[in-house]
Amino acid sequence: MADVRGPEEKVMLKTQVQQQIEYYFGNDNLIKDTWLRSEAMDKEGWVSIARIATFKRILSMTSDVSLILDAVTSSQMLETDTQGQRVRLKDGWDKWILLANRT
Prior knowledge:
Helices cover 47% and strands 9% of the residues. It is mainly alpha-helical. It has a 3-stranded antiparallel beta sheet. Strand 2 and strand 3 form a beta hairpin. The longest helix is centred in the N-terminal third of the chain and has 18 residues, at 7-24.
């Protein structure tokens, strides 16, 4: 896990976390990531930030959930729920919901 020492390193880490989470929600990943779409994503396209914090790649970068939330809220392609507990695509999230999750 990364050891963030100063403000520059924290900004760089936040950017890396943001890019990784945006990758998870990007077309290239969602087209093949049926686990994320069927197990982690609910019928409204939301994924728990706590769950994202357990993903191996994210864990290798940080375990700081507040940094993860900060990275998500800085994204132009993602949105958080009003409680800041879940994340989803701002636009087009509904096309990634699997039929089993639509009920």
